[in-house]
Amino acid sequence: MSMMLLEAIMKGIYCLIMDLPKKANIQVGKLGRLAFDAGVYVYIGSAISGIEQRVRRHKAAKKRMKWHIDYFLRRAGILATVAIPYGTKGMECEVARSLATCEGAGISHKGFGSSDCTCSSHLIFFGDSDPEWVSETLSMRLSMLECIYPRTDWRGHRQ
Question: In Å, how far are 7, 19, 137 from 54, measured between CA atoms?
Fold first, then answer.
């Protein structure tokens, strides 16, 4: 498989499951200085130029601060990444809204990661939840979203 084809396959949306080991006040671009509680967070983003490239950039120690998540990742560590190839901006928002309604979840800060849409936030706080439980919850929510897995009848026709 050529690299060009691989990159085309990996365009879409992604979810970063992260741990902030201790409470922190972080300057987040134009949002200002924000207080973050220690715990597990999930960030939902889009990567039209390629999920692998974007996640590699997020993991880099040295980078230009461009997105809200760049500032947060100065203090938080990425535990896991969930990639959703072919995802669109609308799907990114639907995933963020769905995760925010999970038991034990909440919006971290209004406007975080969502300055280009009408969502409350693309950073969801899960407190001291077990990261493995958060990962399983995320997977379950994704499997239930029609934008990711369209419903079909027994003949495979979309309902």
Answer: 11, 19, 23
- Percent of the chain whose predicted confidence (pLDDT) is above 90: 55
Q: Indicate the number of domains in the chain.
A: 1
Identify the domain containing residue 70 by its residue range. Answer: 3-144
Beta bridge partners of 35: 25
Please give the helix or strand (H or E) that residue 98 lies within, else none: helix 89-100
* Residue 3, φ and ψ in degrees, nearest 5: -60, -35
The DSSP call for residue 18 is: E
pLDDT, tens only, 47-104: 887 888 899 899 998 889 999 999 999 999 999 999 888 766 688 899 999 999 998 9
d(CA 145, CA 129): 22
End-to-end CA distance of the chain: 34
